[in-house]
Write a structure and sequence with these properties.
Layout lengths: L2 E5 L2 E4 L4 E8 L5 E9 L6 E7 L3 E4 L7 E6 L4 E6 L8 E9 L3 E4 L3 E6 L1
Parallel strand pairs: 2-11
Antiparallel strand pairs: 1-3, 3-8, 4-5, 4-9, 5-6, 7-8, 9-10, 9-11
Length: 116
């Protein structure tokens, strides 16, 4: 019933920037948390950044100081601003939203490729 649509991925050179967006549509209720995950080929999916509860934010150590997560509650949208991109950031990025503390929904994934 809820769908998350991601956009903003692409190919960028090292040191460049991208901004990912994830918009939720459908029966939106009680968004408890929003987050961004990534998965590179051959690797586990890992948490990149998240907003939890009352706007508390967490970041993976590898992206601290470079990535910023934010949200627009009126648009049911979460963003990930990625600056100073590195080849190691290359992955498929997925957004996730938790509703009511009981249901998780995932975006379709968007490819981010950083060339050296």
């Amino acid at each position: 019933q809820v769908q998350l649509v991601e956009s903003g991925g692409g190919l960028v050179q090292a040191g460049g920037s991208l901004r990912l967006s994830c918009a939720a549509s459908g029966s939106i209720f009680s968004i408890n948390a929003m987050g961004w995950y990534r998965q590179a080929p051959g690797n586990q999916r890992e948490l990149v950044a998240a907003i939890i509860g009352g706007d508390s934010t967490i970041y993976a150590d590898s992206v601290k100081g470079r990535f910023t997560i934010s949200r627009d509650n009126a648009k049911n949208t979460v963003y990930l601003q990625m600056n100073g991109l590195k080849p190691e950031d290359t992955a498929v990025y997925y957004c996730k939203m938790n509703f009511g503390g009981v249901m998780n929904f995932w975006g379709q994934g968007t490819q981010v490729t950083v060339s050296s």
